[in-house]
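#structure-requests
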Amino acid sequence: MADLRVLCAVLPEDLSSEIFELWDEYTKGRSPEAILAKGFDKIETILQHVKGTNAPDFDFEFNLEYGWERTERHPLLKALRALSDNITKSQMTSQADKTMT
């Protein structure tokens, strides 16, 4: 929040206030748009872990627990979460296979 205050310091008060209100709405998930935005943010992190480069010992179990409270609030998010969990489980199997060979 401190960084947001610094960024908004140069804005007129009405714009600064609007940005703070939107940020509060987003972080608390007070609107359908905020619920989706926050849920998509969590799913994007999970996908970065399964499609990006991780440390060899990356614990994919993290993905299966990460952001549940945000991805359970809308049917679309639940569906995307199920897909990303399946990808995570596939990565876990692949990682286990590499460790065994």
